[in-house]
Amino acid sequence: MAETIPLWSLTDDSLVEISEDGSLVVVTRWGEHEFPHAEPLVVESLRRMALGPVSLANVTSSWEPVEREPDLEGELSWTAEGADALRQVLKELGGSVVRSLGLADGRGPLLSVIPVVLAPVFAPVAIPATRPIRLSRFSSLRSDADGMGLESPSARYRVVLSQPWAVHVAATLATAKSVGEIVITTGIDRGVVGAIVSYLVAAGVVQAAGENGRFAEDDDPELGVWSPDELSFHTTSRTWRPGGPADLAGLGNPPVVKAPTGEGPSYSLFRPDLTERAETDPTLTALLENDHSCPEFTESVLSAEQIGEFLFRGARIRSIGPAHLPNGPAHSASQRPYFSVACLYELELYVSVNRCSGLDRGIYHYDPLDHRLSLVNDDVADLDEMLDIAMIGGGNHRRPSALITVTARMPRMASVLGGGAYATTLAHVGALQQTLYLVARAMGLAAHAVPVDAGDRVDRALKLDWPAEVGVGECVLDLPVDAVGE
Predict the structure, then answer these.
(1) pTM for this structure?
(2) Which of 7, 163, 416, 463 could cross-link to 110 by cystine, CB 3.0-4.6 Å?
(3) What whole-number distance in Å separates Cα of residue 180 and Cα of residue 191?
């Protein structure tokens, strides 16, 4: 009969500093923790935990045991002062304490439970042998550097399944099963299966049914409004987790301006006199107090001058220079009319021109530095498909005069922000959309974001180098109905 062993360690990003006078400092992703008069048992335990998974029973074996109730799964029934101090320290460091489960075979952990929040609670208990259990509907299983990563955005821990037995147990839980059924299915020792299941349930990635046989998350109305993808994106975009870009250094410092693509003709655009516009434009309050609604597309024809002014006022590069994040590396940056973290400005604009005097129909890329449009695709079928996407997304029965497609050069963001790049990009899209909306209203035009189901059609039509550059939003441009008397 195989016997499981509870193991303890600190997360890889934790640093334990021990001074000669016995004081202890533990530096974690959550901050520094100082223990000026740490018990010897505390110092020795954390020193070993920083090196990798360790059985605390082995650490405490050199301390004199005392009569007391077992704690921490029976491992800390040792000197009262040392055990109490270690218990308190581990509680304070909870967001950086990894709980692993191993066997007495020297092959390392079966699995490791890694915290992803500051103060999680991990309390594994035995699951009744006939109780149904299953993966949370939010859980995902994918390759990890140390095995298979099992995580759920609704859980306070992520799990690394390092050995085949742990992977097999988790893989059987796509549908509800009991511990007894898992034993029959996998042939793994009942005690090992029970221990693995208790860790997975305590980590929150596996659900145990209640007395009524139902799973709590199925009846939770707050969780019911979230899809697994949306909740996962929310969680990972707000909290750093492992699994982000593997080699940020390899990205270098991507250029401020995208290099020209294609061999199509380019067109210099109109540059308005902003001093003159400042005297005639409506006030910001007047613009904001107008109703925000998707325009009814007309058969009107925009002018190249209007498109030029629209892009100049909403998206051009005003200047280029150095910038940096606090305590971060310097990078080349630009100044534009809308907000971008650290002035990274990873967004690119493409204009699908439908009806415009002075510009032929086609799909163009906007160069914000030289304020030019360059033709990237003159295929009529691709253009019409892009315009149809906008027409459907805007709930109209006509194609718009023009469609602005916003893309993102992800290396530009990831080189500085790493795993937070995409979430920040979506915030930038919102800032740009608002700017374009206000500029259009000030010019007497109608601009509005439209939701689209793009698939790979946008990538093909714009000839994007996926996934280095990806479509992230659309904005239609037209004349308002009242301006053309319809």
Answers:
(1) 0.81
(2) 163
(3) 10
